[in-house]
Design goal:
Largest sheet: 6 strands, mixed
Oligomer: single chain
Helix content: 25-40%
CATH class: Alpha Beta
Order of helices and strands: HEHEEEEHEEHEEHE
Structural class: alpha+beta
Number of helices: 5
CATH architecture: 3-Layer(aba) Sandwich
């Protein structure tokens, strides 16, 4: 199995947990994954992420977008924030994503999701990047794309988000930082 196929399978498994969780956590929204190779889908995904959540209530019509990152597990206790992609040709998702939220899913040992505002995550990474460890994930040789990024320590960013000690205006409330087990939430 190629690295790409492995990554696709891991992402599909994470989405199988994440989508029902988002639907139950935000029942006022329709949760729609962006899928397919149609040019519009590809453009939407590159710019706004993997999921569109919309509310069609005429009084409160809104749309939120979610960038989804799924990993089997974390060896380092960190999120991987990709700063460069395609052999240092393209900016990584942490630089170019315009999604409203970032959902980071780890599948093992027990599925867990971290949901935070993308703008706040990006600001925290920019402010703290100088002290984070650089990472270049190894691929299995079949994958030509090389990515570079930084390891974002979950313990540190969680503490800053929850305490309001962050380099950006912190808006208190349950939508600023959510962390939840996804066990039992798979379709």
């Amino acid at each position: 199995m190629s690295q790409f196929d492995h990554d696709q399978r891991t992402e599909a498994e994470g989405m199988a947990y994440l989508l029902p969780w988002l639907e139950s956590r935000f029942p006022q929204f329709h949760v729609v994954p962006i899928r397919g190779q149609h040019p519009l889908c590809v453009t939407l995904q590159k710019t706004f992420g993997d999921i569109v959540m919309y509310r069609d209530d005429p009084e409160k019509r809104t749309m939120e977008t979610v960038e989804v990152k799924v990993e089997r597990y974390t060896k380092t206790g960190s999120f991987f924030a990709e700063t460069w992609s395609n052999n240092l040709i393209n900016p990584g998702w942490v630089c170019k994503s315009e999604a409203v939220y970032l959902a980071y899913v780890f599948l093992e040992p027990e599925p867990v999701v971290y949901l935070m505002r993308m703008h706040d995550f990006k600001a925290w990474v920019r402010f703290n990047e100088w002290r984070m460890k650089r990472a270049e994930p190894k691929t299995n040789g079949n994958q030509k794309n090389q990515t570079v990024g930084v390891l974002v320590p979950i313990r540190e960013i969680r503490a800053d988000f929850k305490a309001g000690n962050a380099p950006f205006p912190f808006r208190e409330g349950p939508r600023d930082w959510l962390e939840a087990s996804l066990a039992g939430g798979r379709k």
